[in-house]
Amino acid sequence: MGRVTGGLATRRALLAAGLATPPAVQAQTLPTSWPASWPDRPVRIVVPYAPGGPTDILARTLAAALGEAWRQPVVVENRPGAGSAIGTEVVARAAPDGHTLLFAATAHVMNPALMPHLPFDAVRDFTAISNCAFHPMLLVVHPSTGITDLPGFVAAAKARPGGLTMGSAGVGNASHLAMALFASVTGIELTHVPFSGAAPAQAAVLSGQVQGGFFNSTVAVPQIRDGRLRGIATADARRWRELPDLPTLAELGYPGTEAGSWYGVLAPARLPPALTARLHADILAAMRRPAVRERVIAAGLDPLETGPAEFQAQLAAEVEKWGRVVKTAGIRPD
After folding, report:
1. What is the band of 173 on the pLDDT scale with cuts at 50, 70, 90?
2. Which CATH number describes the domain made up of 137-235?
3. Alpha carbon 327 to chain centroid distance?
4. What are the angstrom distances between the C-alpha of 256 and each of 153, 171, 259, 317?
């Protein structure tokens, strides 16, 4: 079984540019009557991360559009700390009345395995509303490795178990878990070199200090285009639109290795179904606005249209998936 030393099937509905929504989909749009007076006061969207990152930027873009639609202030409240657990707990304990929402990211489904004593359940304590955007992880190496494709990468790893060094943004980070998943599926051994964030990890690979890593497409694509990193494969079921010639891990013979970052809206558990439907419909309308859509794509993300039932199932499936990865790799947070 592969490992990393040192230290779902749910798919997005990609909105192609200029693609009109089919009438059948429009007909399924759920009621917008909850009640007519809602919201009758400001709505807050809790972002469990510091300002400036992709989660914060997307949340603020969405908040501005929703504020216009609802004619109420929609305030983004940054509550970083404890790997996103602090802000997430705020929402888990809030009243299920639609006035407190969480703008979550992939760490939401990875943290349960890494922090078994979380004061909330990542699935049962939340109502999934809408998964809004996504970008995949890309496997990259420094050109000095001489590795040019995935068969060469796997062969090099098998020839010298642990000989390939792989940087990540930290123990238990998405980049680390993507690496651990791939090692497990392929049966190879890689040496994990954790850093204190994505920027120093990327810098280490760019300098050749570390030989490779899994980085999200927003970070990796410019460096691949400039020739400073070599793209090996996309860790998604589909090729990434910005690198259409880069094959996926699945098409190269390694299905079940999908890894990426999503960004979506959750609410406290026990949200009334009619309010869940209203929120999803309004968020979908906001995300379809050309200015919002253009900003999401400009940020290097794909817009999504994942609804409540599918998103709730995705949360449960990914908690299970990443729990298996953490257990198999024996990952323990610092």
Report:
1. very high
2. 3.40.190.10
3. 20
4. 18, 22, 9, 13
Estimate the crossing angle of helix 54-70 against helix 290-298, to 10 degrees. 180
Question: What's the one-letter identity of residue 258?
Answer: E
Parts of the chain belonging to CATH 3.40.190.10: 137-235
| Rounded distance between C-alpha atoms, residue 100 and residue 192, angstroms | 38
Which token pair is 237? 């079921």
The CA distance from 126 to 160, in Å, is 45
Contact, 209 vs 220, CB < 8 A? no
Contact 117, 89 (CB under 8 A): no
Contact call for residues 234 and 276 (beta carbons, < 8 A): no
Contact of 263 with 12, CB cutoff 8 Å: no
Using CA atoms, how far apart are residues 256 and 236, in angstroms rounded to an integer? Answer: 9
Q: What is the CA angle 187-192-195, rounded to 5?
A: 150
Quote the tokens at residue 311: 């998103």
| Token pair belonging to 13 | 């509905």
Report in angstroms the alpha-carbon separations of 125 from 61, 92, 94, 122, 157.
26, 6, 10, 6, 41
Q: Give pLDDT, residue 334.
A: 67
State the Cα torsion 168-172-176-179 to the nearest 10°: 170
Kindly state the DSSP code that residue 194 receives in the 8-state scheme. E
Cα–Cα distance for residue pair 317/221, rounded to 1 Å = 28
Helices (H), the chain: 23-27, 54-70, 85-92, 107-114, 150-159, 174-186, 198-207, 217-225, 273-287, 290-298, 308-329
Task: Supply the pTM of this predicted model.
Answer: 0.87
Reduce the DSSP state of residue 34 to 3 states and report it: coil
pLDDT on residue 31: 41
Domain 7-15+43-135+260-329 has CATH 1.10.10.10: no
Does 39 sit behind a cis peptide bond, omega within 30 degrees of 0 on the bond before it? Answer: yes
Would you place residue 35 in the very low, low, confident or very high pLDDT band (cuts 50, 70, 90)? Answer: low
The answer to whether residues 321 and 313 touch, using CB atoms and an 8 Å cutoff, is: no
pLDDT of residue 28: 36
